């Protein structure tokens, strides 16, 4: 099993190209099920979760052809299996996103209940509630969501909570439904907007994406399209936290700063000097960071996917930061690993109090989920001595060639494989 070995203490200088957003690419790949025509996607990141999704779609009969590093063309003209099996779904919660497209286009679906990172309960009841409102007959049988509908009907749907994948699933289902569907309390994330923009290119009629009220007028069929996936705001934020912890200056190319308001604000509070253009961000840090408290919230609030990374920055900051995790109830699993490196963190339910220390010390630590992995990389880069991070398969689910990108800007980081690991 691969590991990362980091020798801390190096300041970061240089440029990094930001990859396409995993959380945008996954639903966009699933949207290929909505048409028999070809969909060509650019800026698709080369990640484990992307590979899993392509394998899942391939088992259903979707043909995919890669070209270059980050482009893929998909054709769902000959789908012959309307099932997402447990062995693939268990590793990646986003697999539930095939439910809406399959039901909308083919009238039935059998999708295993999902897995993914163990960061808390993420039930699919809001997906089911919305699809039932649109006329679907849904049962849970032997660990599968079994759904049928002759043709979905437009409906007014108010979700009990803001759910990104729920909004995406219901939006994809509604584009082929008969009549108008209104999604109230919809997720506003940039990844939801990116999916809606692709669907509109395919002939869908969606309005209001980016607000909490999305209106979809169903159409008879969708056609092919070409689309570029937006930049990964979480990857960009992670690299900025890294330079905040180590000092130095990096420029992020192919970025989307307009999607990162809350993250950039908090990094500036921490003392980072930030400049932005349309598709680039420059971050410079030349002093010890200042402690910066925050509360995670749905977009446009501070993203839960950046909580662990900014916590890592706070571990070496001047002062004390209070962090409130309001999205997932089990998203402090990285804390005990940071404490192994000398961090001072106290947890009380959903609140973490981080008292900054002068210096972290390298240690052997274990990644417990995707964003926890990133926080340990940041801590290792800032720590004195060597840090070994185990179980980095979590990291590979959401970061493309992270060690290569960091090494290119001066980090002493290497992947250990085979006998070396």
Count every helix, treating DSSP H or I runs of 4 or more residues as helices.
14
- Average of per-residue pLDDT values: 94
Helix share of residues?
25-40%
Distance between the termini: 7 Å
Report on the biggest sheet. 4 strands, mixed
Strand content: 25-35%
Strand order of the largest sheet: 22-23-1-24
- Name the structural class: alpha/beta
Overall morphology: globular
Overall strand count? 24
Over the alpha carbons, how many angstroms does the gyration radius reach? 21 Å
Uncertain runs = 116-122
Write up this protein.
The chain is 30% helix and 26% strand. A four-stranded mixed beta sheet has the order 22-23-1-24. Strands 2-15-17-16 form a four-stranded mixed beta sheet. Helix 4 packs parallel to helix 6. It starts with a strand and ends in a 5-residue tail after the last strand.
Chart the SSEs and their pairings:
Layout: E1 3-7, E2 12-17, H1 22-30, E3 38-42, H2 48-60, E4 63-67, E5 71-75, E6 83-84, H3 86-89, H4 99-106, E7 108-112, H5 125-133, E8 137-141, E9 144-148, E10 156-158, H6 164-174, E11 180-184, H7 190-201, E12 205-207, E13 213-217, E14 225-228, H8 233-246, E15 248-253, H9 261-269, E16 273-276, E17 280-285, E18 294-295, H10 307-314, E19 320-324, H11 335-340, E20 344-348, E21 351-355, E22 364-366, H12 370-382, E23 386-390, H13 393-396, H14 402-408, E24 412-416
Parallel strand pairs: 2-15, 3-14, 6-7, 10-11, 18-19, 22-23
Antiparallel strand pairs: 1-23, 1-24, 3-5, 4-5, 7-9, 8-9, 11-13, 12-13, 15-17, 16-17, 19-21, 20-21
Helix pairs in contact: 1-2, 1-7, 4-6, 5-6, 6-7, 8-10, 8-12, 10-12
